[in-house]
Write the structure tokens for this entry.
Amino acid sequence: MFNRLLGDLDDAKILYDQPSQRWVACAIDLADGSLGSQNVILAVSKDSTPVPLAGNWTKYLVAIARPGSKTDSSTLAVDANGIYISAYYFHGGDVNDGHEVVAIKKPDIYQGTYVATFLYVTNTELNTLSITPVVNFDTSRLGSNVWFVAKGPSTGQGTNYKGGPLQYRRLSWNTNSTAQWLDTSWLVLPEPQPTYLDYFDLDGPIIYAPQLTGAGMSLQRTGSRLRTPIIRNSVLWVCQHIGLDGTDGDYGGNETGSTVDRSAIQWLKLQLNSAGTPLTHLAHGRIYDTAATYPYYYYMPSLVVSANGDMVTGFSGSRSTEYVGAFYFGRLADGTTSGSPMLVQAGTGASPIAPYWGDYSYTCLDPDGSIWTVQEYAFAPSGVYWGTWITQINR
């Protein structure tokens, strides 16, 4: 158990563990001291109510800090068996750069027993900015394995340029409450037709999303990493933002990104088979502006899927005639969509510098099944450069 006054926190995440009826949160602790720097703080609620905040949570120190490295890109997920965290190490040189994957057993953690397995993934083993654990709502056999997904490096050069493929790997739990990799390596999702790889990978050269005045928003820091994956009814969903050129919904340029003129939200839907591997591509789609001039750039998505298969994704968007606003897009289980993205909060100002737009987009279900989305938007009175908009979305 961990009790001390925290310093600054970064990359905070929170979700509701529906089967256990508990709230789970984590953040990177930026404070230095005898406990090390940039570990992860995990907090779990004592029951289904998150309040009072001061007394209804138990905190744990997830000791992942490495000397000489900074911790970034923490991610969080739960399934029927555990809580999962992943974080990226950088600026530590070839030896220390990589990812720490942490698996924490349930229900032990809710009973006050912290049992964690630490698995290190080097950049050589998987060249990616972020490994993301999957929130798994299923409790069937397919829910017995722990899922992690990541975007691999771009697969083409020149005029045949393609973005990075979806890669995945699974953990399994042993009887002694420890976890181990089930797959011996990171597997690559086969490319379907029409291909989901015809996009510009925003991990590469810096692409700026324009806004009305001021500098553009750099999309390189977060890149085209995979975000908020979930499994619901034996289907794996995930999203990312990608670069496009022109109005046709794909990218036909080269590795320099010189022809990218808009960014889009891409979502993928994958059927898990009886062996628990995502070998069947059900669908994927792109949310982008088809305007020939002054198109919106959409970026920083998150998604959630309801019990009946309705999907909502929330994200930021801007163009050269508008500041950064908050948007969402809906797709019903039968494929019907909400049409164009819905603007829920327009931007009201611009940052005077070229900012890295934050990776704080989050779309989720609350305990009664309502869908909420939390998005950043440009908000610039009195030197404050961004705000947060929270919206409940009804079917």
In short: The chain has a mean pLDDT of 85.
